[in-house]
Design goal:
Layout (H helix, E strand, L loop, with lengths): L1 H21 L11 H8 L10 H12 L21 H13 L9 H17 L8 E4 L2 H19 L4 H4 L7 E6 L4 H9 L7 E4 L9 H13 L3 E8 L11 H11 L2 E6 L23 E4 L12 E5 L2 H8 L30 H36 L3 E3 L7 E6 L6 H18 L5 E5 L2 E7 L7 H18 L1
Parallel strand pairs: 2-3, 2-4, 4-5, 5-6
Antiparallel strand pairs: 1-7, 6-7, 8-9, 9-11, 10-11
Helix pairs in contact: 1-3, 4-12, 5-12, 6-8, 6-11, 12-14, 13-14
The chain binds pyridoxal-5'-phosphate.
């Protein structure tokens, strides 16, 4: 069995190294042939086993020819990074060790405490011992943060929500903007808060949540007897990479005694770019910060992280230690499973450690800075193009724009831009995705790959232009 594994694993390494080396020479993405799709969808459960060597071959023939496209330097879709080679090694080794990183005295648990601290140091967030944990992604980090915020607010009202449930609470009101990621609404719905009690506060033209509009809304809501408890700021919105005025939000939350959650899933690491850094002032004053190593850092999926200022808010919300789990090797910090939802937890920290150790702080900073420079360059190229329109100034590494040739009427522009992202994808030379920004159909290019070149940016714009002309 072990010798089979050794030889198949060597084959797998060759296969995957070839795959990674060949990525940039192939089309970014192509629709799957119907027969290949059908074969995967209807594959029967095998009655008998298969040799490991044959499994490696099947990965080569059935999976690797049809990738999502992230990994290619002209993949600009959603927020999906190329996998860092060190992170791939970390994932592989973690699967071989296969602990549950819930707690106990084994390497994975202690490594997680260190890498969470490293992540906090990178983005400039204070890190009390036990002040964070790795999660499946930012959606899960947000659920954990909003649960802690809800329970703190409930405790202030004299309600033990863990015992009595949300029915014992008046509606708790949270404040977001139209640019806040949908995972916040999911969390509010899931935690019984009701999306109706998430108030959408106005933004300025660029998409920053307006602190004065928030102040005014809090005043009227309190006068109406409502119970505000949470403000969500963005450290990089998904549509356009916009960073809210976090210092103003932190001031307001301190005055009003509200929980400030910052969503840095995509953008928190943008703080490492010297040009962008000052936009993040105040991030360190949030009660909680969600960020995603599986985005800008290129840690292989899945890996999110939640950082909090007050560790007891997390432990008070989630700790539930049945007798069979009593064991504390963490010097009073307890198990990670006392700070979040998962009980059996994967060894995520190894791929984070490997990715960060391979690049070092300087390597991560250089990559993030390069992506931001590329985004500013793309923004300039869009502004100079007579048939393209930049929809908001570039703040981090996402560029939102639309195809807007002179003379086209509003109905045509709408129709063309709705279809533009997919039309570019299908042409195979670049991959960009669509969105709606300030009510306008747009595409947005997210730069997460420091190996992207200026030529790649030119190809992206050529493709948008060519697809736009076809659609007209
Ligand atoms: C700004 C922002 N917040 C939250 C999320 C959700 O993160 P995840 O997909 O890791 O759950 C995303 C995903 O793209 C995002 O861009």
């Amino acid at each position: 069995m072990t010798s089979d594994f050794r030889s198949a694993a060597h084959d797998a390494v060759e296969l995957l190294a070839d795959y990674l080396e060949g990525l940039s020479a192939r089309e970014v993405w192509t629709p799957m042939p119907a027969a290949a799709r059908e074969e995967l969808l209807t594959r029967p459960l095998p009655e008998d086993g298969t040799e490991l060597a044959a499994l490696v071959e099947a990965i080569g023939s059935d999976v690797l020819p049809y990738p999502m496209g992230n990994g290619h330097p002209r993949f600009f879709g959603w927020v999906n990074a190329a996998p860092a080679p060190a992170g791939i090694l970390g994932s592989f080794a973690a699967a071989a060790v296969n602990p549950s990183s819930a707690g106990g005295d084994h390497a994975d648990v202690h490594l997680e405490r260190s890498v969470v601290r490293w992540l906090a140091e990178l983005v400039g967030f204070p890190h009390p011992a036990g002040g964070g944990l790795l999660t499946s992604g930012a959606s899960m980090a947000t659920i954990v943060a909003v649960a802690a915020a809800r329970n703190r607010a409930a405790a202030e009202l004299g309600v033990n929500v863990r015992e009595e449930g949300v029915a014992a609470l008046p509606p708790l009101v949270g404040y977001v903007s139209a640019e806040t990621h949908s995972c916040v609404r999911k969390a509010a719905e899931l935690l019984g808060l009701g999306s109706r009690h998430l108030v959408t506060v106005a933004t300025d033209a660029a998409g920053h949540l307006d602190p004065e509009a928030l102040r005014e809304r809090l005043r009227t809501d309190r006068a109406a007897g409502l119970t505000p408890f949470l403000v969500v700021g963005s450290a990089g919105t998904v549509n356009a990479g916009v960073v809210d005025d976090l210092a103003a939000l932190a001031d307001l939350c301190a005055e009003e005694k509200l929980w400030l959650h910052v969503d840095g899933a995509y953008g928190a690491f943008g703080r490492l770019d010297p040009v962008s850094a000052s936009r993040y002032a105040g991030l360190e004053r949030a009660d909680s910060l969600a960020l995603d190593p599986h985005k800008w850092l290129g840690v292989p999926v899945d890996c999110g992280c939640l950082l909090v200022r007050d560790t007891e808010q997390l432990r008070g919300t989630f700790s539930l230690v049945p007798p069979y789990l009593r064991d504390d090797a963490a010097g009073g910090l307890g198990w990670f499973s006392e700070y979040g939802i998962e009980q059996t937890r994967p060894f995520r920290s190894l791929k984070v450690w490997a990715t960060l150790a391979a690049a070092g702080r300087s390597g991560v900073t250089a990559d993030v800075t390069r992506c931001c420079e590329l985004a500013r360059e793309l923004g300039r190229m869009v502004e100079e193009a007579p048939d393209l329109e930049l929809l908001t100034p570039v703040e981090t590494s996402i560029v939102a724009f639309r195809y807007a040739p002179a003379g086209a009427d509003a109905e045509t522009l709408h129709r063309v831009n709705v279809a533009l992202g997919v039309a570019v994808q299908e042409r195979g030379r670049a991959f960009v995705t669509g969105t709606v920004l300030n009510g306008q159909e747009a595409v947005r290019a997210c730069l997460l790959n420091a190996r992207t070149t200026e030529d790649d940016l030119r190809v992206l714009l050529e493709e948008c232009r060519a697809a736009g002309q076809d659609l007209r």
